[in-house]
Amino acid sequence: MADIPKCSKVFKLNNGRLGTEDEEALEKSIIHALQSGYRLIDTAQYYGIESTVGRAIRRSGVPRSAITIVTKFWGNAHHDVAGALDLSLRELDLDYIDVFLMHWPWAMTLEGHPLRIDESPTFVETWRQMEALVGDKCRGIGVCNCTQKTLGVLLEHAVVVPAVNQVELHALNPCLRLVPYCQEKGIHVMGWGTLGGDSQVAKNHILTNELFTSIAEKHECSTGAVSLSWAVQRGTTIIPKSSSPARIVENIRLVSLDDEDMAKINDAHRRIELHRVSNIHHLLWIDLDGKRTLRGWTGVDFGWEDEEGNWLT
C-alpha cells in the first residue's frame, strides 16, 4: 500500500498550489503506482495536492471502488470538520472518502494560533463532530499521531472506535507498546516514515546500517524491502513514498522475515538509537511561554514520554 509518491521537485505558489511541472510529475507517479498494483493512496489537506491526487485516480484506469483513499484535516479545521470534509471532496473531485483522519490531536484557532490540550475544541470534541460524518461520503474515520494516553481518553467518550491510527513507525521508533495496544482495541495501525521519513539520520541507519544490510543480503532484497516487510508482518499498513518508477515497483515486493530477523529489527532502537522524526520537524514545533512545544502540546501531553523523559509508546 502506498502514500502519494514523493516528487523530485516540490515548489509551491503563493496560493498554496503546486507548480504545473510538479503536478504533472506527481500525477504520473500516482498513476504508475496504481497501475503497478498499489490500492491505497494517503494524502492530506495540509499537503495542498488533493486535486492532483483525485485527477490521477480518475485517469489511472483503476476502478474507484478498488482504491482506498485516505485524507486528513489540519488543526485549524477542528472547529468545522463537516466543512473540512466538503473541502476534501471538492478538491479530490470524488464522491466519497474511504477514511477521513484527524491529522494531529491538537487544534488551532482559525487564525492559526495553537490551542492547549484542554482548550476547546479538544480532540474529544473534534471526534464527536467526526462521528456524525460517517456515511455515504465518509466511509470511515480515524486519527493520526495518537498514543495510548490520547486514545485512552478518546475511547472513554467515543461511540465510534477509530478505524485507523496513523503514526510514525520505523525501526528507530518501533512503537512496541502502541501497536499491540491499538490492535487490542480494534484500531488498525498505519505507519508513516517506515524508511526514515524526512530524517536523514533515520534514513541513513535504516538504509545502510549493518543490522539491515545483513538481513537484506540474506533475503536478496533491498534494505527498504526489509523495513517495509517488518512493518507489514507486524500487522500494520505501510505508506512508502518514492518518485522513482523502479522504486515504486520494488516497494510493493515484500519478503518473508523469520523470527530472528524480526527480533533484530525490533531491537534496533536499542542497538542503534531511539529517534523520533517528529521531534526534529521544524514546522511542527513552536516556542510557547518560553517552552518548546508541538503546537502548544508537550511530549507528556501527547503521551510520548513521562515526566522523566522515558518513551512510553
TrEMBL record:
<dbReference type="InterPro" id="IPR036812">
    <property type="entry name" value="NAD(P)_OxRdtase_dom_sf"/>
</dbReference>
<keyword id="KW-0521">NADP</keyword>
<feature type="domain" description="NADP-dependent oxidoreductase">
    <location>
        <begin position="14"/>
        <end position="268"/>
    </location>
</feature>
<comment type="function">
    <text>Catalyzes the initial reaction in the xylose utilization pathway by reducing D-xylose into xylitol. Xylose is a major component of hemicelluloses such as xylan. Most fungi utilize D-xylose via three enzymatic reactions, xylose reductase (XR), xylitol dehydrogenase (XDH), and xylulokinase, to form xylulose 5-phosphate, which enters pentose phosphate pathway.</text>
</comment>
<protein>
    <recommendedName>
        <fullName>D-xylose reductase [NAD(P)H]</fullName>
        <ecNumber>1.1.1.307</ecNumber>
    </recommendedName>
</protein>
<dbReference type="InterPro" id="IPR020471">
    <property type="entry name" value="AKR"/>
</dbReference>
<dbReference type="InterPro" id="IPR018170">
    <property type="entry name" value="Aldo/ket_reductase_CS"/>
</dbReference>
<dbReference type="InterPro" id="IPR023210">
    <property type="entry name" value="NADP_OxRdtase_dom"/>
</dbReference>
<keyword id="KW-0560">Oxidoreductase</keyword>
<dbReference type="Pfam" id="PF00248">
    <property type="entry name" value="Aldo_ket_red"/>
</dbReference>
<comment type="similarity">
    <text>Belongs to the aldo/keto reductase family.</text>
</comment>
